[in-house]
Amino acid sequence: MPRSVILLATGLFLGVGLGFVLGAASQPQTMPSAAADIAHDHAAHDHGQDGSHDHKTLTEEGDVAPVLTLSIHPDGPQSRNLHIGVTGFIFDPEGVNGPHVPGHGHAHVYVNGVKMPRAYNPWVQLLALPQGTHEIRVTLNANDHSQLARNGQPIEATIPVVID
Fold it and tell me: Is 149 exposed, middle or buried (0-12, 13-18, 19+ CB in 10 A)?
């Protein structure tokens, strides 16, 4: 009987330990808050066949360039919903990392200069902003991640957000 108890205790100990390790490793990654001190991690997405892309490269959209407007809507004491208003532009999550298609792409959202996850639709939740004034900047980007431009000027907009 004592040998059975020892084997049972050992099995429980190892099973719980292994379960804890596997459980911790399989936890889903959460979207960072806008206040988090994060850096844009290029390992998280495909860089195309040559292994790189440059967010500062401009893709000229010409006379039919999209128009971008921003608005902020309350969503709790420290969170806000950002609406990315566009005309002449289609959010195209299925085209990401592909070739440029005029008027298609995604948006890059920056909070105080820190890049947040890409926006593939017009609404972005900005979570847990600390008290103070924050600058939200949005750029429209082509499927190949180059920034859309008109007459050499990037298509982007900024809006302040104040959290009391």
Answer: buried
